[in-house]
Amino acid sequence: MQDGFGRKIDYLRISVTDRCNFRCQYCMSENMTFMPKSELLTLEEITLIAERFIGHGIRKIRLTGGEPLVRRDMSDVIQRLGRKVESGDLEELTLTTNGSLLREYADHLAQHHVARINVSMDTLDPDRFSEITRGARVEQVLDGISAAKEAGIQVKINMVALRDFNQADLLPMAEYCAEQGHDLTVIETMPLGDTGSDRKLEHISAEEFIAPLANNYEIKPIAHRSSGPAKYAAVDPLGLRLGMITPLSNNFCDGCNRLRLTTDGKIFMCLGHNAHVDLRGAVRNEGIEAVDRLLQKALKLKPLRHEFNAQLDGSAEKLERHMNVTGG
Ligand code: SAM
Ligand code: SF4
User: Fold this and answer.
1) pLDDT digits over 115-148, tens only?
2) Using CA atoms, how far apart are residues 327 and 27, in angstroms rounded to an integer?
3) What is the predicted pLDDT for the residue at 246?
4) Which residue, 152, 267, 163, 266, is CA-closest to 207?
5) Which of the ligands is closest to the CA of residue 327?
6) How confident is the model at residue 54 (pLDDT cuts 50, 70, 90)?
């Protein structure tokens, strides 16, 4: 698959639920409301749509949300899509999770060909963790990460960079990740949905955020690439691979290879635009073949780049959609 700008599209992110057991301050508002269950794609719909996408050239799928592991039939979703890896139709099935339910799910994930996962954790400090997630316990996440490691799953930690909040937590986080053998990726906040906080004030560029690490370690850019947009550096002599996702400070849209399927069956071609096509309605009315037609439409609609900087400074229309609906 190619979009209108000649970019190869082979990566699909599926948000399997908009619900979550955390309320991270940069992701959701305190009083978030969620979709009625009838709006969600069913297990059968997710499987059929994913198969159709694979037929069109999708090679990698990441399951996300909301918190994907709170979906009731999540073990079936994992099992069904894991079969696509087993058969060689899919190169990779991955997951982004807040880690809280990994103790329960780690073996099941490993058994069904999920070899790598991303776990979001913005600080190791129990009080600050509880503050940023509005009430969750970092100990539970750390235990979940250990369970994933014990099951043989490779873990990458995602840390959202928040000005005046967690910059001092980067050093202990880097040391923890190096010791445990996890990669660490710093992500700049994106202005998605109203969360009750000032997006402009919370923003800090990844470069500024990681700068204090240089007081203790040497940071050298390296050529390593993953299937996502992170650029990497080696932190020596710690032996840590540090990724940076810089949607605002250093645009990476030229290399975008992704489509996103939302909880309610819409294809979004870009996290930062409202353009989308409604697959669920078409599939429920016309059958699964509707995917082929709508996918072509979606590829033509994929914009060249997001407008997060303009949305942040108020010169472009704000995005109402929160991150948990489209999936991070
Ligand atoms: N619940 C899972 C988790 O937290 O990993 C998966 C969904 S979450 C929306 C996916 C990723 O998006 C997480 O790493 C989270 O930190 C990040 N995220 C959420 N809101 C964000 C925002 N406004 N800007 C940047 N990253 C955000
Ligand atoms: Fe939940 Fe993930 Fe959003 Fe946090 S970032 S509220 S864990 S969906």
Assistant:
1) 999 999 999 999 999 999 999 999 999 999 999 9
2) 10
3) 87
4) 163
5) 1
6) very high
Give 276's contacts (C-beta < 8 A, 6+ positions apart): 262, 266, 267, 268, 269, 298, 301
Nearest to 9 by CA among 46, 45, 60, 51: 60
Please give the number of the atom of ligand 2 that sits closest to the Cα of 67: 8
Furthest-apart CA atoms within the chain: distance in Å: 60
Cα(242)–Cα(229) distance, rounded to whole angstroms? 13
CATH 3.30.465.10 fits 11-326, yes or no: no
The predicted structure's pLDDT at residue 125: 98
Residue in 70, 55, 155, 142 with CA at minimum distance from that of residue 114: 155
Q: What is the C-alpha end-to-end distance of the chain, expressed in Å?
A: 22
Residues at CB less than 6 angstroms from ligand 1? 20, 26-27, 64-65, 67, 96-98, 120, 158, 160, 187, 189-190, 192, 323-324, 328
Q: Are 328 and 26 in contact (CB under 8 A)?
A: no
Band of residue 26 on the pLDDT scale cut at 50, 70, 90 = very high
Which ligand sits nearest to residue 65's alpha carbon? Answer: 1
Structure tokens at 31: 């009083």
pLDDT band at residue 317, thresholds of 50, 70 and 90?
confident
Q: Which has the closest alpha carbon to 149: 122, 129, 177?
A: 177
Q: What is the pLDDT of residue 87?
A: 97
The answer for residues whose C-beta is within 8 angstroms of residue 313's C-beta and 6 or more apart is: 200
**What's residue 262's pLDDT?**
94
